[in-house]
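Hi C.,

You asked whether I'd gotten around to modeling the 189-residue construct. I have! Everything is below, sequence then structure, no commentary in between.
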Amino acid sequence: MSEKKEDGRVRYTKMRIRSAFYELAKQNEYDKITVTAVCNKAEINRATFYKHYLDIPDLIDKLQEEAIEKLINRLDVATKSNIDDFLIDLLKQVKENTSANGSLSLFTQASATSFTSKVSRIIYSKFSEIIKSDIPKSSTLDQDMIFVYIAGGCAGIIDYWAKTGFKEDEKELSQKLRLMANLTIKSIR
């Protein structure tokens, strides 16, 4: 089944809604932003907003998914090389997207917990093949459960790194993430 291409007017309207939301998010926590405020800023009526989004949480979810999809697309090549390149590229993308246009900065706010789980899913899906071979098959612990634990921890640290202003460079944090993963793996052998 072929995917239906979005009309130019629809893309333009969504772009205005998203731009308005990003502008408002720079001034307020996103849970304080209303549909009315977005509509006023985008110079559209509420009915137009509701043609595209259910509410502000739906808009945020779609924006997060879009940001995550961009990360996934740009990290596909790194995954094919090795885990260190993948982690460094992931960290660079998070930092660039947060600093450059603010599109990810609102997802690193304290109340944006779903961002962490989405980053965790990227980590899980993108480097599971690389690191899973390092995880011993254990009769007491499920291999997938161990990997989910490692991926979740890495995502939490990345979220913390973003929230605290990227104090370490990408290579340094990548090495720490790899060390923590290796220590976890060694502790279950």
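If it helps when you're writing up: The mean pLDDT is 78.

Thanks,
B.
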